[in-house]
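Encode chain A's predicted structure.
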Amino acid sequence: MRRYNIWFCFILLISCIEPFDIENLSFERSLVVNAVITNEFKNHLVKLSNTVELRTDEIIKETGAKVFIVDDNQLVYNFIEIEEGKYESEEKFKADLNISYKLVIETKDGKVYESTPEQLMEENSIIESINRTVIEDDSKTKLVLSVDSKSFDENKKFYRYEYSETYKMAPNFWNTEELKVFSDTPPFVIAPVLKDYGRFCYPTVHSKKILLAETTKLSQNFIREFPVRTIPIDDIEISIRYSILIKQFSISQKTHNYYKLLEKFSVSNDVFSQTQVGKIPSNIKNIETGKQVVGYFDVSSISYKRIFFNRENVTDELYYNNISECYFLKPSLAIRDESPLLKLLESGEYVFYARKDPESNCPGGPYILVPKKCGDCRDSGPSTKPDFWID
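Encoded structure for chain A:
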């Protein structure tokens, strides 16, 4: 008899559960702060935005704020807004040992936020090397970039990593010439001229994932082969030449714990996502209401290292680019009072690839066009080499 009573209670319990409507949740906007200063002598940055509801991808920048950092010697470092939501220190400075720093933000609506005083971790850890390892994972060949780190004291350490990767790429179809419109009215005059930019482009991508390491669970106080970046071997990033700059931040356990929570509750791979689930403790709060922001003010020592390598340094496989989306068009120069060639060029979606063979019996011409992404890589990155680039 008891078994039936239990079953009846279970049915009664589930029958009382009502559907959960996430649309009915109340939303309260919060300030989002991304602020890290280091022992680098440079112009430091503070980025400000606002949280948004889960169903939107919009980013609302916090503009018109007053931002400054003050140390315990009452030295003030002012920041100015260089673009929407992005604030840069007016002068170069660096964080020093045994000095506390506090971030202060006053938004344009008069709300004032302050961080707790934070100090620099000792400058006693460096990146020794960046390792390259080719692995097989899920029947796919991948390149793993990892770091070895060395510490100069016996204390257990906590680290956070960021990277910026830059790679050399080229379009599938390239010509040293481009089409210039000399007359956009009948009779149409469109002819090839030499390009003023080169074939190769150099896109740069910054890390978004939270990368944390610690030595508290290790028998020795150093990091070995901590994976920072994994790239499929057939990715365009390693089609020709590749470079990565890895930054290692020596952080406190308190900062480490914050990022662990951020990693757990963020609904995005971005470090400071504008949409987050759960309340994550911050060291920045509104001085009047005590309400905390989304974000953290961190003072860290930093070590960084850059490497370059070519594709042949990591694999013998030739790079194969899927060109299924690349096709040829041979638009006529003029049909009555219109120019199909001019219309395609004005759309910005097509570029010149080659001159049509004059002996060809195929209609159209006189020039062959391809989709822009197949003949011009500048939408991916600039065609000029970065200052740090080494061939």
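The chain has four helices and 22 strands.
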